[in-house]
Gamma-glutamyl phosphate reductase (Modicisalibacter xianhensis), 852 residues
Amino acid sequence: MSHALSPGDDIGAYMAQLGQAARQASTVMRRTNTGCKNAALLAMARHLEAARPTLVEANARDLERGRASGLDAALLDRLELNESRIDAMIEGLEQVASLPDPVGEIDGLRSRPSGIQVGQMRVPLGVIGIIYESRPNVTVEAASLCLKSGNACILRGGSEARESNAAIAACITRGLIEAGLPEAAVQVVATTDREAVGHLISMPEYVDVIIPRGGKSLIERVSREAKVPVIKHLDGVCHVYVDASADLDKALAIAVNAKTHRYGTCNTMETLLLDAPVADELLPRLAAAYAEHGVELRGCERTCQLLPDVTVASEADWAAEYLAPVLAVRVVDGIDEAIEHIERYGSHHTDAIVTESYTLSRRFLAEVDSSSVMVNASTRFADGFEYGLGAEIGISTDKLHARGPVGLEGLTTRKYIVLGDGHVRR
Amino acid sequence: MSHALSPGDDIGAYMAQLGQAARQASTVMRRTNTGCKNAALLAMARHLEAARPTLVEANARDLERGRASGLDAALLDRLELNESRIDAMIEGLEQVASLPDPVGEIDGLRSRPSGIQVGQMRVPLGVIGIIYESRPNVTVEAASLCLKSGNACILRGGSEARESNAAIAACITRGLIEAGLPEAAVQVVATTDREAVGHLISMPEYVDVIIPRGGKSLIERVSREAKVPVIKHLDGVCHVYVDASADLDKALAIAVNAKTHRYGTCNTMETLLLDAPVADELLPRLAAAYAEHGVELRGCERTCQLLPDVTVASEADWAAEYLAPVLAVRVVDGIDEAIEHIERYGSHHTDAIVTESYTLSRRFLAEVDSSSVMVNASTRFADGFEYGLGAEIGISTDKLHARGPVGLEGLTTRKYIVLGDGHVRR
């Protein structure tokens, strides 16, 4: 029941053991059928259900230690595992079990003039390393998505959640064993030594990709030091551009929703761009709506002429990811200036245009180089659930491999398959 | 007509200028329509045709300098631009012009319960840096694929081909100008200083991906030092496994073709695995066929018992990419041992099974973790042209992003698009 490997003094040797075991497990996972993977997910859900008291107790010890060491209220909130969060973990497992299995899907199988048939088959990446911070429910989310996509994974959670993560890991292991899968298909790193991360990101022989989930400094450190490919999720400096051709009621609804639906998420609008001809009419209506929500505005000169009470934005405001009830507002002259602004200051995450113009909607979709580009919709829709991926492991701001919300498909790759009948090349 | 930027003493400043110009050009290329891109490709072809004498003269100077500096015959052959190679460059441009444009393709546009429609749009990567060695025709191949896929590119050829590359670059530039495209859409680095490569692979703000084409040492150096994602193409240690269920005539044809069709290519078979029950019958027939082609065999103990003249293979032979008329041969006990051998010694490039068994063909396809996996076909088919990509920029041995032959699609990425009608998130 307990994990075979335990960390000793030599963290490097321990991590290499985990890596080796994961690599071996990945060759089993690769050929595990959908039914068996789903059985493991549902068994994990049952074991979490049965372990509720244990989970809450383990989490209480983490919370106590956190409080004693002075963690702030926001961090303590993210660390907490209460009954409703355990419900959510269990529902998450059931939901991932119900998603279609991407592995084995064959695309574009076509006959070639030589007589061979060529197509692409979707296959697991292999071993995925995930590094995350305080939220212990990530342990279940990450494990379930990696398992369903046929990968083995090595999970490194935050030290503040170590007892909660160990209790969750025990349920995951029981589920794997019950379904007849290798325990090493999901391994939770059992040391809080920071050195472990350094090893995890430097073992290309055992780990195929690293996904860091957490603050900017974690992601930047991992990206800088990794010797393994990284799927990363950096800032969301998202824009809504309201063109002169917009329906102003839609513009108002979208601009308010994109800012105020939630402040701390990466798909929240941080800068609003208004086309000059509609600024006069729209700005006062927007200002009133934002005032109601307690959103502070920082404006360009032209904004401040129309709204004298607004603070003048500095250069830094245009590139800021506030994650707070603050919004930068700029009046621009048409779509070209808007796209230039987005190109210069944006983070290529999610940007939207509000317009009734067919031509401008097509231009914006084609020319804005962001992971999600929207017409007449709130940036808050940029999310794996809203997009129908079922669940997401993060939102990639990379261009290669996976871009935007990363679901099961982003945890797979496609290899070519060739079917012949004794064919040789002439 | 001539390029605006020229390298001075400060290679770093020069490369940053190229990068900045490329980034700017990429925003134009991204929105350039198919007709205009094709017009540029065909204009380049016409300018190459008109410049034949100039190209041959420039190449003669490269060849002369190469001979004087003692380049070996193989390198001099790759460096040579004769009339038939110029024909091939011109045909290549015409062929890329005739390929479908991947940019703008929208996949899977579906309505979501919230009312938005979500899909994925194929878009250029942005700026691609390509580093290659002696063959000057790569300049045209790389430029044409990057252009057709809507990217700007920075090309760094080998110093031994510098005059040839400059002459080709002049034709490319004329073609761009004629089609009204920015000259900086294709830039050939005009210095042979090795420092230039170091800068090219360290400018993530200007370059989105690096593709090294050349020997293993070049690719390893670039991968190790790059601060930009690299699409790489490493060794091809390819296998053919002949199962006991094989049709032995097909097995013989495939095993001979996979080894002898060409020796120096990455998709050439380097190790042949024979299932024990058919080794007795097949080995003597194979040995005779290989002897005819002058292929030297290195065998496992069981092979050497059946063919006493064969040299015993060392451990190094199992991992060797010979690129020569040499073949390692091993007798194994069934598909499991074959897959284990491929997993342990292979390079995840291209591996084939010969079998008449439905079940074993499905297992091999699912379980062998290589960029191309084949049933009853020669490994030599692993090639962009044979797969119908029209052309290839290389064969990726990476798992992320592009795997296997990389054509136009591999030079693009997909972003999410969201179409709404004033939709906000509840």
Observations:
- Chain B has a mean pLDDT of 94.
- Residues 233 and 397 of chain B are 5 Å apart (CA to CA).
- The domain at 238-386 of chain B is CATH 3.40.309.10 (Aldehyde Dehydrogenase; Chain A, domain 2).
